[in-house]
């Protein structure tokens, strides 16, 4: 081993010198290593996990889809001829899915929850097994079809309602027994539940509940394994032509879970990337601090005949070693993540799960790690060119022409291009990648401009010679501009904190205001037209008729835009979701209350002509349609063509009932449909009493609390803010490294300064006071710059991205303004205090 | 045709060095003309601020000159680029500083090896060990600078300055940080090694007793040779 080491070291001078130089210096890179570690770990971990899940999904598509094909239709059962054909030509299993309320008979509090109900026939599952945990038998495979008025529920629901196996719950018209807890549902992932927990039951039990009535939002599915293995999808497409049936097969099935994985991966990877990029500033500061300490060593090496390039390579190699120490454990831990989670994944998502190592996430995270590290290291490292060996004798103020500066600039541009390429690859969205880079670039430019502006002012102004102000000014401006490095290092972290704080406060205020002023308290879904009159009566007697608002709703799919099939259309990525799945429609001859017309006019209240449609303005732009264009919808298996009559601005933030598509009154209103409604009342007790009355009287109606939903959104938002706040703190901490390094470097000057002050008769107290003012001024300057940048950036983001009013909490702002100066002052004084007790003569004798 | 005498190793022609401070530009050397002969020792004397160290560092290629010419054996070094000056130093100049300037992260042996490593001439440790033995540090080979006394550190610096067998050794106040006993030992060592290695020694000092060991003494005052 030592022979091998010798060969490597003998051959490579740079490596040898780097190792020698770096010996014992790793402590100085703690923050740098941590910053790299966090970013690379997040990207590798989430990438590996996502790759493993995708791989598993791809391999188990049949099992997860529950068959070779899945046919589905909404509202109506399958046309008989299709159903018969499928039954005659393969194995078939029928499923019915819907959303409803389940109430526990056990508790008075928290006794009702919205659930995703799934009723299955005797053939389900065609592939795989259902595993449930029952009271006496433990984990077993079971056939649900035999169970009448018995249900199986998710672990989540069990915990939410505090129910246990054997308890009785109310579902529609029946009281059902909880027979077991679902441990594995083979085709669960591809029917990924969004709203509530899963409740499994037999088809007969569903019938008994009486929940399926005309107009109920019910999804019928048939899982199908054909006898003829060579059956073509095109043949099946012909079979369903002209109906509202759609097909998924194992090859083309995009599903909510896939989309969920893709989006979550993208989001967490972006958090990782942003962590890395922001940490880059910490990395840069750490390297800068390290090099400040190494100025003398660099000068020595150069005085012994080392060329600039050699010195650059020696320190670049050292930094590479530091990167590796951050990156390697991060990658190892990252690729271990799927292995660590494999028992959980195997238990909850797939029947079996064997984690694997994938090269792509390793490549992506390592590339990100190295590129970001290099990008932020190369500038401080290029300063090694400017260190002259004459530094050993005196501080040189000669301007140094760095003949490699152009090469370095080109290299930096190359690194940025690589980063852009990788980010575009990661996000598959050039716009998003562009926004990330442009906002980082603008933020750093603003920071540099602000800092330079303040320092120019500090340089230009003059106070009375000998005055306290002038002494402070000189010590801040003169000492090799070290104070500027401190200000920039701290301002990055603090301005990020200020920005986040203002955004959080503004969003909190908006949410608080909306909940208290505009938003309804509850949503009601699946109201039958025959029930609305009765509910209105209940409303009049409790919350008041004005506080109850109901609108009819039907779901359908857009099939054509201007006579072109939607499959052939190329539309904005942001609005593709509108065309992908069923959408909700309403109809009204009166303009919705909260909506503002952008183009066109609303149709007459008594309009009875050909079908017209009003469409959300942003969606219209994304779909590239305008007034007069035709949209074809398939509702309940029938196609309707509507002409766009106007476009509206939809205020989603109002949290009221909003539809993208509002149709004119037509025969559609005679189709079986349900109503969606909202209720509101200042008195929370009255409000919940009203809800209680409605849902207990009409078992098919489900209610959703807006406050509960907001709590979920807020907790997600809070989690995100905590993550970014942590990054901001890491960045702030990297400022401490720079401060600490600069204090170490300037100790010699400070010692000399103390000696001179003492000889001139100054008392230690006075010197401490002078330093106090000096550090306080640096701290205040950093705070001021951070707050200016924080306010500016948050104002822009709130106005143009979040569309939320800018709100400033002055108390928090003052606290943030003061924390940094106080910290810098205490930290600096603590580090420098022992210099005060140095003997002036000893210092002066040994100075230079 | 050579512009220098056969024995001249360094020639300075009308050399000016200006140093910029925040407030003003100071003329440190004001037209120095000097011939330094090979294998001889020359002492640069003068009071503080006379320009002694600046002159020595100019010859070492560490200080840029504002005006004039410097030749090393016929070769002009005043217009060399930084990297070429580094080459010139690596091959021809050994420098001993007042404050030793050893790399704290390297042992005595590694510090001595360093010039060879930089110039790419390192083969093994034998030559460095021999040199360290010749300066009396055979028992301190693997010690780090902070484990050595001031005198020992300076002896490591001397060994380092000689490792590449340079033709010129520049010693800038080599005893400035040492006590009397160590100063004498170090000076004795420098002259002994200079003779053994047939080098040219340029010694900067303000100590007359040390200057007397040299073949030639020049005195600087206000940037000019008296």
What letter string, H or E per element, gives the SSE order of chain B? EEEHEEHEHHHEHEHEE
Quickly give the CATH architecture of chain B: 3-Layer(aba) Sandwich
Q: Which value, in Å, is the CA radius of gyration of chain B?
A: 17 Å
Hey, roughly how much beta strand do the residues of chain A contain? 15-25%
Strand order of the largest sheet of chain A: 2-3-9-6-8-7
Could you please describe the fold and organization of this structure?
The complex is a heterodimer of chains A (848) and B (226). By secondary structure, chain A is an alpha+beta fold. Chain A has 4 domains: 1-63 and 258-428, no CATH class; 68-249, no CATH class; 457-520 and 707-848, no CATH class; 545-680, no CATH class. In chain A, α15 (482-518) packs across α21 (764-802) and α21 (764-802) runs antiparallel to α22 (810-832). Chain A is elongated, with a radius of gyration of 34 Å. The model of chain A is unreliable at 1-5 (pLDDT under 50). Chain B is an alpha/beta fold and 226 residues long. Chain B has a single domain (39-63, 87-225), classed as Rossmann fold (3-Layer(aba) Sandwich). In chain B, the strands form 2 sheets. Chain B has a 6-stranded mixed sheet with strand order 6-7-8-3-9-10. A 4-stranded antiparallel sheet of chain B has the order 2-1-4-5, covered by helices on one side. In chain B, α3 (108-119) packs parallel to α5 (150-162), α4 (126-134) packs across α5 and α5 packs parallel to α6. Chain A binds chain B through residues 10, 13, 16-17, 20-25, 296-297, 299-310, 388-390, 392-394, 397-398, 403, 478, and chain B through 19-22, 53, 57, 60, 62-64, 81-83, 86-91, 93, 95, 97, 99, 101-106, 110, 114-115, 117-120, 122, 160, 164, 172.
